[in-house]
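From the pipeline queue, job 12 of 40. The input is one protein chain; the requested action is below.

Action: predict structure.
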Amino acid sequence: MGKNIVLIGMPGCGKTTIGKLVSEKLQYGFVDMDQYIEEIQGQTIKDMFQEGETFFRDKETIACKELSKCSSKVISTGGGVIKRSENIDHLKENSIIIFIDRNVEDIIGDVNIYSRPLLNEGTGKLYELYEERYDLYKKYSELTIINKGSLEEVAEKIVSKIAISDII
């Protein structure tokens, strides 16, 4: 049974799309943590945020604990999963954590940021979150992958780095 591969990074950095590609290449299951939380709660992330960010973060922590019991999964997290160190503690029990690093300008060019609950305030908020979170992403990840080039190339880079380092 292999370790999970957990992808962390900013909203819009490509975690979900890259995660699906990596899961196909490794023949692992794929879990989008936000979707997992929505299914369990029967609410959208947006609706949970309307009850307060703390409400959502509590649900996210429960999901981290539950998903840490899985194996051979690629797990795409929400961008703020790193805000609580206990989330990372749970995930590290049976996972390698990979930071998908993508510059903010590329995210702004590709993603409808207004569809993301924490980014409704516009691009300034995205820069603010990047400044706030970048060091945490670096601190908690065992591997950093720059999202430049095609998503297929980024996924292949992840698979290659994992194979070389023999970490799963």
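Job complete. The beta strands are 4-8, 29-32, 73-76, 95-101, 143-146.
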